[in-house]
Amino acid sequence: MPMGASHPNTQDEPVLLADGLVKQFAGRRVVDGVGLRCRAGQVLSLLGANGAGKTTTLRLCYGFLQPDAGTIRVAGIDRCTDPETAARRVGVCTQDDTFDTDFTVRGNLEQVGRYFRPRPPALKARIAILLERFGLDRYASAKPDILSGGYRRRLMLARALIHEPQLLFLDEPTTGLDPQARLEVWELIDTLRRDGLGIVLTTHYMDEAERLSDELVVLREGRMVAAGKPRAVLGDLVGEHVLVLEARDPAAPAVCEWARQAGLPELTRVLSDLHLALDGPGLARFIARFGDLRFEVRPPTLDDLFLKLAEKS
Amino acid sequence: MTPHYRAAFQWQSRAVLGRHLTVYRRNWHTAALPPLLEPIILLLAFGVGLGGFIPEFSWRGHPVPYLAYLAPGMLAYTAFMTAFFQALFTAYIRMHYQKTWEGQLVTQVRLEHVVWGEVLWAATLGTVYALIVTLVLVGFSLAGWLHLHWIGAFLILPLLFLAALAFATLGLLFTALVPSIDHMNIPFFLVIMPLGFTSSTYFPLEGDSPWTQAWLILNPLHHLAEGIRLVLLTGEIDYHLVAACALFLLMISILVPIDERLLRRRVLGEG
């Protein structure tokens, strides 16, 4: 039995369609013209530095906040005109643990089921399935306080899925988890995607975004600076290749000068290395000019993108 | 009916209320001890103990022993203090530390439902505690220490619920305003405790000064205590009960939208 939507949306309509979202706090635009599109069985990641507007964008989409401008459709429902029906179709896993500490693990799932109408059908059976599939059955009668970080996340995910939503929002789902627990959460997210759930997540873990995302939206100061497939976004914003050479190399000043004259972006210093983003022809020119240097060429990663964004802001 | 008040009757508010009730039911045996023991101790200490040194005095032309004077005041004080305390401390803990509200707000529950759920719960608990005090007073009556007109109790309980609703909205106002839990001492000791003791609950408040008169006219807790006292001591009803109802309805109608607006700003950062 799938953990997510049992009633997938029509193929034509994305499960999330947001357009022109604007949100101001104290006169400052923290979200400025953001548009998102996520289909069933797809993971859309919002990426950006702290304060880029990721969480606020997510909160607008799941209805915690109201946008000052823009439209949001969830599984074909307009969130502004029918917020209650729209809320019935989404599940939310917040960044902080917001499970109810007055209830046991099982009690949490029972209680959150009471916050939805129509009531989730066959709730007891649904809870049993969620407990088993998230590995929570042995903690069912325990208070959530005793759970490890990874299991707390599992409980948060199970809570978000109790009413079989079509769209799942995950706000930094693995922040603070150890590598093993992160991997387990990634596997759960991947399973949910395969079950046909649309998933929108925020993260500033580059490896997480790379591994999980079908589509990526990069935010900076509330605005979208790039959107698309992860590789395409990286190519657009960083370049096809990243050249790495030691900053102590005697030829480094000459490389910097060559890059400046070629109209390339400045080399980025990362610890003891210098990084230079290049396209294919640029790399060929570099090799023709500095072929005898010791350097490394690797594909760009989201870390490069993140550093680039940080540099620009 | 505006959305502020309509939310009180929607299923989401009942779901929030149900959540609090479920938690309370699990801990009822320990949670019921304070409302049961506190009035017994206070009635014994002040009503029987201290009251033994106070001669019968005239209250509105009726000779009244201090224990009989104290008992109705304690009913009013219990509904007032329980509802206020719940809406202030425990709601704040759920909002700030336990993040229960945030967990509710990512479902079909909206902030207005959380507000009404808290207010209704505080009022329910205030009424239940007042009912427990009533049972203690019945025990005192059966022991022959008190002589009250119990027929009026049926009238008093709905009024106590209304009072508790009003004071819960006041408690929630401070929940929305206080910067941290440490700052709760300010409304508690500067507003609530003085209000609780200067409202004809534990001793008669009289005076001809315009300030005293204004205080007595505008103070809903004074009207509540005096109205209940008249019902229980004489079986009569007078303008105090009407004044109390009017003032409580006024409080609720004013404070609910304010609470909601302030909490929207505090919890959601909006408004």
Would you give an account of this structure?
With 313 residues, chain A is of the alpha/beta class. Chain A contains 11 helices and 14 strands. In chain A, helix 6 links the parallel strand 7 (167-171) and strand 8 (198-203). The mean pLDDT of chain A is 91. Chain B is mostly helical. Chain B has one domain (3-268). The model of chain B has no long low-confidence stretch (mean pLDDT 93). At the A-B interface, helix 2 of A face helix 2 and helix 6 of B.
Structurally, the number of domains of chain A stands at 2
Tell me the distance between the termini of chain B: 22 Å
Helix content of chain B: over 70%
> Low-confidence runs of chain B (pLDDT<50, min 5 residues)?
none
Helix content of chain A: 25-40%
Principal-axis shape of chain B: globular
Task: Spell out the CATH superfamily of the largest domain in chain A.
Answer: P-loop containing nucleotide triphosphate hydrolases
Measured by DSSP, the beta-strand proportion of chain A falls in: 25-35%
Indicate the CATH class of the largest domain in chain A.
Answer: Alpha Beta
Give the N-to-C terminal Cα separation of chain A.
46 Å
Number of helices of chain A: 11
Quickly count the domains of chain B. Answer: 1
Helix-strand pattern of chain A: EEEHEEHEHHHEHEHEEHEHEEHEH
Largest β-sheet summary of chain B:
2 strands, antiparallel
